[in-house]
């Protein structure tokens, strides 16, 4: 049976990761507003969404497969919606706004990368598990990739003086989020089907044999 997160060590790690994401959201939200960056806006939304969905992950630990897979489906949907929001924001800013502040983007991207590296180190030994546990790892891994991409975006914006690298990274991050949403949804669906099949097998096996 896949690890469902029901261990004190995993609960402690998850609480610490939630705190890291709340702090990251506060810092990057201010920086995103000041730097006028779609990539940083994506980062801000990601920190906020992760804090909320990790809290949901903590709450469903120990509950039924149906409840845990339902939480995973919710996280999958939220990732997909966030990807679409990031893509829309990136397009709007690229077409209507000035070039963002490259130095601020790089600095805050590196801050986010450091925060997510800490979170990843806390979670790496729990990277395999059910859809609920695995979704936490995938989101954290994506966050680290995203922040490094944001830092690289700042360098590209500074060198080119253009807003288009910010758009390109926004589109790339939206694609990464959509792929993770799909992976989480597929695993949650498979786990729910397996649980239903097992329950059906147990029910049929307990039925008394028909009289001869």
Give a description of the structure.
It is a single chain. Helix content is 83%, strand content 0%. By secondary structure, the protein is an all-alpha fold. α2 packs antiparallel against α5 (131-160) and α3 (65-96) packs antiparallel against α6. It is elongated. The model has no long low-confidence stretch (mean pLDDT 79).
In short:
The chain has 212 residues and is mainly alpha-helical.
Please give the largest β-sheet. none
What order do the helices and strands follow?
Answer: HHHHHH
Task: Tell me roughly what share of residues is in helical segments.
Answer: over 70%
Strand portion: under 5%
Average pLDDT value? 79
Shape from CA axes?
elongated
Please count the helical segments. 6
Q: Could you outline the blueprint of secondary structure elements for this entry?
A:
Layout (H helix, E strand, L loop, with lengths): L7 H28 L2 H23 L4 H32 L5 H22 L7 H30 L3 H42 L7
Helix pairs in contact: 1-2, 1-4, 2-3, 2-5, 3-6, 4-5, 5-6
Which terms would index this structure?
6 helices, mainly alpha, 212 residues, 83% helix
């Amino acid at each position: 049976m896949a690890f469902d997160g029901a261990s004190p060590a995993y609960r402690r790690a998850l609480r610490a990761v939630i705190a890291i994401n709340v702090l990251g959201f506060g810092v990057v939200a201010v920086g995103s507003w000041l730097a006028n960056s779609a990539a940083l806006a994506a980062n801000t939304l990601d920190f906020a969404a992760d804090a909320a969905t990790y809290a949901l992950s903590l709450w469903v630990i120990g509950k039924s497969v149906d409840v845990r897979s339902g939480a995973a489906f919710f996280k999958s949907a939220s990732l997909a919606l966030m990807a679409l929001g990031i893509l829309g924001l990136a397009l709007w800013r690229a077409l209507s706004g000035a070039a963002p502040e490259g130095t601020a983007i790089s600095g805050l991207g590196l801050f986010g990368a450091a925060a997510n590296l800490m979170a990843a180190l806390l979670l790496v030994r729990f990277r395999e598990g059910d859809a609920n546990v695995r979704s936490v790892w995938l989101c954290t891994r994506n966050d680290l990739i995203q922040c490094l991409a944001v830092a690289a975006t700042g360098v590209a914006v500074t060198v080119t003086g253009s807003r288009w690298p910010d758009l390109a990274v926004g589109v790339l991050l939206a694609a990464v989020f959509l792929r993770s949403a799909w992976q989480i949804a597929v695993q949650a669906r498979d786990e729910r089907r397996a649980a239903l099949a097992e329950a059906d097998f147990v029910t049929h096996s307990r039925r008394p044999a028909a009289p001869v």
